[in-house]
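> tool_call: predict_assembly(chains=four)
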Amino acid sequence: MSRWEPGSQGRLAEAAAELFLERGYEATTVADIAARAGVTERTFFRYFADKREVLFGDPEAYNGVFTDAIAAAPATATPLDAVAAALRAAGGFFVGRHPHAGIRQRIIDANPALQEREQIKRLHLTEAMAEALHARGVPDPTARLTAELGTVAFHLAFVRWVTAERDSDLGALALDVLAELRAAAA
Amino acid sequence: MSRWEPGSQGRLAEAAAELFLERGYEATTVADIAARAGVTERTFFRYFADKREVLFGDPEAYNGVFTDAIAAAPATATPLDAVAAALRAAGGFFVGRHPHAGIRQRIIDANPALQEREQIKRLHLTEAMAEALHARGVPDPTARLTAELGTVAFHLAFVRWVTAERDSDLGALALDVLAELRAAAA
DNA sequence: CCTCCAATGTCAGAAACTGACATCAGCGTA
DNA sequence: TACGCTGATGTCAGTTTCTGACATTGGAGG
């Protein structure tokens, strides 16, 4: 066996979620999290840039779901079509994670510092989608505008989905919201 | 004369902007800012909740420009019309501040922590506009969707405006972007 | 002249983060 | 087998942000 239990990063993330739920984000120190995960505080900061980051997964993987779908959309698809495909694909990312997402969202909603982090992730997603549209030959400002529409629609759909008691099809919900958005802009 | 020079808050904000520009945000400590403003560190934290906040003005005043315009829109105005009126009004808020806004934006763009704060302010503006629409009798999800459209348009217009070498009419620019957004959603 | 108050100062401390260096199980290699 | 290297972790000291508690005092108002 190895010198230490493997999977420190995962244990830290789990311990953090548990403690944030039990005592709240502010009342939990990084030392607490590290102790529950069986490592030192220093190890926490080797895996996570800061205390907030422990609640957020790999952005490459997450944003990739959207950008891959945009890249994979047929050449005939309009920018908005490509974004719609991304929203549908992103719905798949959350399949089976409704309970977990609900808990995580309650933690975030209870703390302004975490909401800031969430918003900046949303901005980065928008930028990644705009970049993916550029790669399809969509110029600015259309690319950026379409990406913004997509992020707004997904965000609002996500709020509805995660707030609801029962699980549902997030991808379909996102397409609904996108349609509502088009109507609101009409 | 009074016991201390009046206007501590303003001096702190000025000192902070100067130092952030000279050395960068991270390389500037709150103690540095306080020293330049001629007060103690503790006084800084009496006026600003944290180090980032010193770059952001009173959100009530700022958001109020948007929400007042929404409230003042004629009863016949559609939700999107009311939001458009808000964007035009918000343009007035920045008249004569182009140089200052440019400097401030360079500081923010150079630091992720400040970008987070900027994004959360944007979210709060969206929520305030949605609230102002509710007060006009606009129900959700229309209110929230329209508010999102308005914030997106204003944000993108602001980026264009502040990035440009020469000053221009931000309000008009915002209405242009809103029109582009409608086209992108069509 | 007295009293109260608002703005500031002083001080101690918790918690978040960072840099530098130490440790050591297990791996590959001679 | 012995040896040396590496990667994950530990240890430790230090800086900075932010907070709570209490002290100070010039000036306004009675």
